[in-house]
Amino acid sequence: MGPLHKTGRIEIGYNAPSGDRLSQKACYHPSVLTVPLPARIAKRPERLGGRRTCNSTSYRGDRMSVVEESLARIREFPQQLVPLREELLANVVLIGQIPAPTGGEEQRARFMLDRFVESAVDEVSADDLGNAVGLKYGKQGQRTIMLVSHLDTIFPASVDHNIVVHSDSIVGPGVGDNALGAAVISMMPDVLKALSIELDSNLLLVGSVRSLGRGNHEGIRFQLDHLTRRVDCGIVVEGMQLGRLNYFSIGTIRGDITCTVRPEPSRSYGAESALVVLNHIINRILSIATPKRPYTLIRLGKMRAGISYDTDPDQAELGFEVISHSDEMIETVQREIEDIVAEMSARHSVNAELDVFFSRQAGGLPFSHPLVRTVLDVMTELDIPPDQGHSPSELSEFISRGIPAVTLGITRGEKNTKQPDHVEIGPILKGVAQLAGVLLAIDQGACDES
User: Fold this and answer.
1) Residue 299 burial by CB count (10 A; 0-12/13-18/19+): exposed, middle or buried?
2) Residues 258, 259, 261, 266: is their CA dihedral positive or negative?
3) The domain at 251-360 falls in which architecture?
4) What is the rounded CA–CA span in Å between residue 245 and residue 409?
5) For 206-254, what is each residue's pLDDT tens digit?
6) Which of 89, 143, 211, 342 could join 150 in a cystine, given CB atoms 3.0 to 4.6 angstroms apart?
7) Is the CATH number of domain 10-249+362-443 3.40.630.10?
């Protein structure tokens, strides 16, 4: 993706001809407005050294007084963001209507970069893997906070990506995972401006590619491994759910088991159905003993085989996931699955193969970490009930590199497989206010480790 020298204009209008149904028209015109801005502005010379925390020593102070001062402002943020509501909804629609299967996020990345340019972000570029990256300088620049949302979705480009806006919800494929998160990241400079917030810290905004499925967080891993300045704190932004607070990741592997009938019959068994052999494998996997402590679960998520009722399938595929609080248990279960697949392949006239394409270690922040406590303080002030669980996100990549980070959600909604996703409009501004509040608290030293 080449240097950027253009931006876009967003126009949004509402028509409500009947009842409370709201229809929205949104247009993106990349050639209407031109704001020349070099793609790569010379980087500032300051670099940080020493122990990685959310704050440098020169910013340390009384954490309680900092938090109280910030919280007094945060309560008013949702109301102050009302003027941005329509533009934010327009960006959700515009991003959501751009197909972005894993590995095909170029147009979404371009849209986000255009928004960064329009907001006068100081450095705007796509990295070598295609991540959309914007750096907004802080007044002092002695700390860098990264905000990241993934751009890809589970939906192929062939799916109708039409997004419909009703009076209380937005409906469409991938709207909550993660068109809304990407829209919020693209507008954070405008959000901070509307709230009269000038950060002392640098703000690094990233729309990451190749995150889901076999992408295995490749985009954010590449970005974190090729940083030109140290990142002190990270916030992963997901569209759903409001109240989501992830600060630890559970150990996970994901893989596919593929059974393919051999061209020649086995001496012992002759020709067999790939589906029947896969069924043997499934039964063996389900017999693997998993402890309650450490929590360990084998999840069989998808299966595909056959093309007709009257023909034995010559190929069958199983997709599975193993999660655990213990990396050792993950390794033990993986070895057992490897043995099962190898045995079934040897005993039957089917080539059985195991491909583990995703792996994540367990780990995270303790509950007592100042970043976690600060997020909880912000949620309390905004009357957001916290949900301190764990779910897959780019969080694990920060954790594995020793960077304090959390994952936050913006609104309530639901992901569906048989019908389009939807997110609620009402809580969105509160979710954005939460994000701005956490940024402000980090910037003022509230997450500093003692």
Assistant:
1) exposed
2) positive
3) 2-Layer Sandwich (3.30)
4) 8
5) 999 999 989 999 999 999 999 999 999 999 999 999 999 999 989 999 9
6) 211
7) yes
